[in-house]
Amino acid sequence: xxxxxxxxxxxxxxxxxxxxxxxxxxxxxxxxxxxxxxxxxxxxxxxxxxxxxxxxxxxxxxxxxxxxxxxxxxxxxxxxxxxxxxxxxxxxxxxxxxxxxxxxxxxxxxxxxxxxxxxxxxxxxxxxxxxxxxxxxxxxxxxxxxxxxxxxxxxxxxxxxxxxxxxxxxxxxxxxxxxxxxxxxxxxxxxxxxxxxxxxxxxxxxxxxxxxxxxxxxxxxxxxxxxxxxxxxxxxxxxxxxxxxxxxxxxxxxxxxxxxxxxxxxxxxxxxxxxxxxxxxxxxxxxxxxxxxxxxxxxxxxxxxxxxxxx
Length: 311
Ligand code: NAP
What we know:
Elements: E1 7-13, H1 17-29, E2 32-38, H2 42-51, E3 56-57, H3 61-65, E4 70-73, H4 80-87, E5 96-99, H5 105-111, E6 120-121, E7 124-127, E8 147-150, H6 158-170, E9 174-177, H7 180-207, H8 213-218, H9 224-230, H10 235-244, H11 246-269, H12 272-291
Parallel strand pairs: 1-2, 1-4, 2-3, 4-5, 5-6, 8-9
Antiparallel strand pairs: 7-8
The protein binds NADP nicotinamide-adenine-dinucleotide phosphate.
NADP nicotinamide-adenine-dinucleotide phosphate (NAP) binds near residues 14, 16, 40 and 234.
């Protein structure tokens, strides 16, 4: 059975990993009738055409949103405000504007003032990604079994929120609603601080003089390999994340440093019991994550993507 068309005309502002995945999934599932896309640079716009990701590719964000029922802003967080300012006067009354930014309070602060009354502004964040960027890196299955967090304002139109939630659910995602501030706190600990740790440990390892680069590469299966994958994430996106979610990240880093001090003390004192207790607790947490289907117990490498079948 074909999926119902949820939006007539989808405008994608920014077509990289996330925008490119939305385009592919929406097309594969028949969730929209027309996709119009734009990107900042001509080479990316040309690549969108070559990949056939949209029915129309236009030069500006303002042109892309004309007549659109759903506008998805898929650019780095730091660019969302300028995009909102450009598209604001051209939005169709009754349209829904959303985004996919990994930080929410700053995006709401930057975008909301430019969205006119009569347009539904429902920010979002699909908690799914890879370390790759650009329109070639997107794939339709990216959102399957992942969460998408929506942060609508308190007085949001419930029918509009539900329609956007159904759009994400059709991609195979589960949808959760929360406030932008709560989102930023949760993501600081589940995503932003872990990325910072990865960026840090990879830098530390390669700055060491005692251990050679070839030894690091040779023995990287011992946990380090996963850090290098995360530390290869897009520098622009992650710079913006830390600038935009400063307060929540600093709060979580404070707690993290306190906990690290406890582990450091346990190692210094030879307190095996404290170390064992901590590791047993975190092992149980990991098993819980696998049980809820947020990850597989299988090794990360070479895992085939699930196939998105047209329903
Ligand atoms: P991406 O693959 O690098 O694509 C970025 C897109 O934004 C491209 O179309 C790029 O245009 C455009 N862009 C870059 N800088 C811009 C600027 N200053 N002004 C206007 N357009 C600009 O990025 P992505 O990974 O899809 O990330 C996009 C958004 O998704 C970010 O807000 C990020 O926080 C969020 N997100 C990412 C992930 C992830 O794992 N990557 C996961 C969840 C959410 P050109 O190519 O033409 O320059």
